[in-house]
Amino acid sequence: TATIDGRPCEMLRITHPLRRDGLQFFSASMSIDSELHVPVRFDVYDWPETPGQQAPLMAEFTYTNVTLNADLDDATFKPEILRGP
Fold this sequence. Notes:
Elements: E1 2-4, E2 7-15, E3 27-33, E4 39-45, E5 57-62, H1 79-83
Antiparallel strand pairs: 1-2, 2-3, 3-4, 4-5
């Protein structure tokens, strides 16, 4: 378990013990809010340069102000809008 922004969360972690073709990261973790059941934190680490070395952080996302069932217009999700300019 973990606590994110004061909220209890369950945490999942994936670690690849050996580097192999097709694996894009060494380790990743996701924290899921125990009450809302939505992901609120994600971090992913690259492979360490040498065994035993700290794995470098590739990306980290934390969501602390989540609105569920927001009243969004369907047009917001049109493919041409999502693709961007």
